[in-house]
Amino acid sequence: MSEEAITVAEERPAPDGGGGVPTPPLRPGGYDPADYAASVVRSAEEAGVSALLLMSVLHNEAYKPHHPLLERLWQWWKPGASFGLGNMHRATFERVRRAHGLDARWEDLRDDPALAIRAAALHLGDLDRGLPGRHTRRCTRDELLALGYNAGERNMRAFARGVPPGPMARSYLRRLRANRSRAAEALTGAGSTRDTASRV
After folding, report:
1. Cα angle at 165 between 163 and 169, to 5 degrees?
2. For residue 25, what is the DSSP state?
């Protein structure tokens, strides 16, 4: 692919016209969740979750490029791969789609960053409704939701009861805490009216 073709692909807006949300860049290291702050704020408000939580999760999930072409190649190599800015697996997306009446397919997450952010926010909201009001003080509520996003709702409930997270979950939690200040900085000036600081 020529450099000119790459530039055109990077500047093309999302196919649904979702507020001019840009396609993630093709070049390695070019993706920054901060570029999607306005969409994060809108989706977090719709789902009733903290924009800081959602942005922190997107920073945690930024370990691989999210350009649609690269995600297609990733799926070819690993058929059960996750898609979109939030790295959502098919089964999770299908639950969110049914619960919220989304008119989209799992494959659309690769091509539509606004949909991927919205689906991640709705999933965090669903996890929030499934989390008991009382939980261990080892993690904040938003940290438990992020762990649920990464490790599944059943594990989230176990962590809430005080079961210690395993090595992978602990690593995810460490990165979430480390990404909190970057996520807060990304949201500065993005117009969030929800609590963006106290729960993560």
Report:
1. 155
2. P
Yes or no: say if 66 and 30 are a contact pair by the CB < 8 Å rule: no
Calpha distance 89→75 (Å, rounded): 11
Q: What is the DSSP annotation of 40-61?
A: HHHHHHHHTS-HHHHHHHHHHT
Supply the DSSP string of 97-150, one letter for each residue: HHHHT----TTHHHH-HHHHHHHHHHHHHHHHHHS-SS--TTS-HHHHHHHHHH
**pLDDT one-digit tens code per residue, 111-155:** 899 999 999 999 999 999 999 888 888 899 999 999 999 999 999
For 30, the token pair is 């070019």
Instruction: Look at residue 80 in the predicted model and tell me its pLDDT.
Output: 76
What token pair was written down for 128?
Answer: 């929030």
Cβ atoms 176, 143 nearer than 8 A: yes
- For 153-200, the DSSP string reads HHHHHHHHHTPPP-HHHHHHHHHHHHHHHHHHHHHTTS---S--SS--
Structure tokens of 198?
């106290």
For 32-49, write each residue's pLDDT tens digit: 999 999 999 999 999 999
pTM for the model: 0.82
Contact, 24 vs 66, CB < 8 A? yes
